From TrEMBL:
Gene3D superfamilies: Kinesin motor domain (3.40.850.10)
Source organism: Balaeniceps rex
Cellular localisation: Cytoplasm, Cytoskeleton
Plastid as UniProt keyword: no
Positions contributing to ATP binding: 28-35
PROSITE patterns: KINESIN_MOTOR_1, KINESIN_MOTOR_2
Keywords: ATP-binding, Coiled coil, Cytoplasm, Cytoskeleton, Microtubule, Motor protein, Nucleotide-binding
A GO term from the CC aspect: microtubule
Protein name as annotated: Kinesin-like protein
Biological classification of the source: Eukaryota, Metazoa, Chordata, Craniata, Vertebrata
């Protein structure tokens, strides 16, 4: 876990506390360890816990004449509907664009935090609300994409307010109905998952050929709309590709590696 963290998310922290956006997401077929990488276990913390710990430590080390405020929100995208995992009673939330064109989730709960432990407690509370169901391919299959957003606002003497956003995303895995043996509601969920992951893959493909592609279609799914600024804006994005050693998952693994290869060629201006 520590090795993966150092090679991926650790380098995003300095940009976030300086006012830039950053995103890290786990991508791959179902049952390949994406949730383990992002959330980990009590004995082996995942990327979320390690990133948050170093983020708050960096704020403490650099505060001086700068005032920092940290807040977080946590949502899931389930069947193309957005749910607030910290306050599920709000029902289905909508995406809105603000005056600058940035995509925001309307009315989502935003909670202030003063430590990594506090954010992780809220994350654990939200995970208890997350939609999970067993399938033939995965006994604890995530049926939704989970998005943790941490906002760092900073005000330095003599200067204005700046804010950076860190998105940490546990994507649901791509599925084949023959492998998962899904029927009914599970099959419907799988179709929504695959459709949103296809939209994400199409955006990655278009961005990797930006010189010849004038229009990037982010509107095919709630996931890509939410990630618009992360993928095509001025932030840093880390994609952690997960593959399976099983021969039955060859096609999914090959597809994941192809998307990862394309993602490496995306360049953003920061």
């Amino acid at each position: 876990q520590e090795t993966v963290y150092r090679a991926t998310a650790r380098g995003l922290i300095a940009g976030v506390i300086s006012g830039y956006n950053a995103t890290v997401f786990a991508y791959g077929p179902t049952g390949c360890g994406k949730t383990y990488s992002m959330l980990g276990t009590d004995g082996k913390p995942g990327i979320c816990a390690r990133t948050l710990g170093d983020l708050f430590q960096a704020i403490e080390d650099t505060s001086g004449d700068t005032e920092y405020k940290v807040s977080m929100s946590y949502l899931e995208i389930y069947n193309e509907m957005i749910r607030d995992l910290l306050n599920p009673s709000l029902g289905c939330l909508q995406l809105r664009e603000d005056a600058s064109g940035a995509v925001r989730v309307a009315s989502i709960t935003e909670v202030s935090a003063i430590s990594a432990e506090e954010v992780m407690q809220l994350l654990a509370r939200g995970n208890r609300q997350r939609t999970q169901e067993p399938t033939a391919a995965n006994h604890t299959s995530s049926r939704s994409h989970a998005v943790l957003q941490v906002t760092v606002r900073q005000r330095r003497r003599g200067r204005g307010l700046r804010h950076g956003r860190l998105f940490m995303i546990d994507l649901a895995g791509s599925e084949r109905a023959a492998q998962t043996q899904n029927r009914g509601q599970r099959m419907k969920e799988g179709a929504h998952i695959n459709r949103s992951l296809l939209a994400l893959g199409n955006c990655i493909k278009a961005l990797s050929h930006r010189a010849s592609t004038k229009y990037i279609n982010y509107r095919d799914s709630k996931l890509t709309r939410l990630l618009k600024d992360s993928l095509g804006g001025n932030g840093h994005t880390v994609m952690i590709a997960h593959i399976s050693p099983a021969s039955t998952a060859f096609e999914e693994s090959r597809s994941t590696l192809a998307y990862a290869h394309r993602a490496k060629s995306i360049r953003a201006t920061v």
